[in-house]
């Protein structure tokens, strides 16, 4: 691995304020739901989903999908594999997919298509981060936390080669000359 430094891009305080605002919007949108199925995409969304569900003023069920596209590199492979599927059926249910970053859009496109095929009543997506300049598939989250430039980021659940998920803020990785 190349030596690198991490520069803070979004503070823990800004993230908390934004998560609270997103949760209010989502609670309003699904106000009449029986029970919302909140689906986290492992592993990058685990901290975001934990914070988000605690701010939701709704009955919720939490489930997870693990999709892989990246391996340990920094480039999307465009091929999405499902490593772990939902435990529960979602037919006729209200579903919120929680994603860490929408980058090229391949992952969300694949997961969304797979879940839509199961005929949920409503399916919306909340992504913490969006890099619109990187998009290869015409898809967007219903709600986005922050739009960011084309930088490789870590922290708040998001890793670089499985490290830095425990940073409380979002930082950008700056590679150093070795
Ligand atoms: P996409 O399929 O949209 O290209 O990529 C989606 C996934 O790639 C994200 O959910 C995330 O796991 C990973 N990814 C995209 N950009 C970054 C980044 O800047 N840092 C890290 N660590 N992962 C990223
Ligand atoms: Mg992800
Ligand atoms: Mg990753």
TrEMBL record:
The lineage of its organism: Bacteria, Pseudomonadati, Pseudomonadota, Alphaproteobacteria, Rhodobacterales. GO terms for molecular function: guanine phosphoribosyltransferase activity; hypoxanthine phosphoribosyltransferase activity; magnesium ion binding; nucleotide binding. One of its GO terms (cellular component) is cytosol. Pathway: Purine metabolism; IMP biosynthesis via salvage pathway; IMP from hypoxanthine: step 1/1. NCBIfam families: HGPRTase. It is found in: Cytoplasm. Transmembrane segments: none annotated. This is Hypoxanthine phosphoribosyltransferase. It catalyses: GMP + diphosphate = guanine + 5-phospho-alpha-D-ribose 1-diphosphate; IMP + diphosphate = hypoxanthine + 5-phospho-alpha-D-ribose 1-diphosphate. Belongs to the purine/pyrimidine phosphoribosyltransferase family. It is an enzyme of class 2 (transferase). Gene3D superfamilies: 3.40.50.2020. SUPFAM superfamilies: PRTase-like. It comes from the Bacteria. InterPro entries: HGPRT, Hxn_phspho_trans, PRTase-like, PRTase_dom. Residues 13-160 form the Phosphoribosyltransferase domain. Pfam families: Pribosyltran (PF00156). CDD domains: PRTases_typeI. Its main location: cytoplasm. The gene is hpt. Keywords: Cytoplasm, Glycosyltransferase, Magnesium, Metal-binding, Nucleotide-binding, Purine salvage, Transferase. Its cofactor is Mg(2+). Its EC number is 2.4.2.8. GO terms for biological process: GMP salvage; guanine salvage; hypoxanthine metabolic process; IMP salvage; purine ribonucleoside salvage.
């Amino acid at each position: 691995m190349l030596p690198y430094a991490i520069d803070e891009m979004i503070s823990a305080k800004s993230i908390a304020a934004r998560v609270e605002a997103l949760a209010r919007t989502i609670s309003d949108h699904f106000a009449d739901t029986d029970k919302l199925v909140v689906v986290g995409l492992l592993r990058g969304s685990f901290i975001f989903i934990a914070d988000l569900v605690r701010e939701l003023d709704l009955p919720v069920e939490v489930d997870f999908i693990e999709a892989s596209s990246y391996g340990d590199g920094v480039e999307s492979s465009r091929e999405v594999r499902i490593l772990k599927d939902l435990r529960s059926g979602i037919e006729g249910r209200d579903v919120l997919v929680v994603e860490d970053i929408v980058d090229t859009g391949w992952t969300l496109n694949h997961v969304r298509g797979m879940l839509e095929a199961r005929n949920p009543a409503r399916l919306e997506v909340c992504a913490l981060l969006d890099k619109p300049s990187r998009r290869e598939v015409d898809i967007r989250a219903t709600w986005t936390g922050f739009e960011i430039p084309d930088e490789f980021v870590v922290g708040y659940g998001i890793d670089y080669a499985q490290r830095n998920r425990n940073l409380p803020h979002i930082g950008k990785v700056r590679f150093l000359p070795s």
